[in-house]
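seq:
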Amino acid sequence: MLRVGELVRHALSSFLVRGEVQDQILQDITITVPEVRMSPDLKLASAYIMPLGGENAEAVVVALNRHAKFIRGRIAPDLALKYAPSVRFFVDDTFEEAERINNLLRSKEVSRDLN
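struct:
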């Protein structure tokens, strides 16, 4: 699952760099794909994306999900799999979660307990 997830991630990244999706929201936006998680049967790919700068992330996800079938058809030849997985897009919130954990670790309560 990890290997196929990485294949899908690379295919999605190179597809998004080419800018083949004709959508007003996706024009002039650089999108990163930090992670793709595959279902156990490898037929569903959950792609976590983040626009550069984090602006309009929800709108970008909606636009990508609207064009998911087109994207699936474009990345399928790059994957060399028996079945092309369906792709669902989600906002990647790992940076926000890491910031929240850092703030918790730096809080007065935690430093008091460490001393």
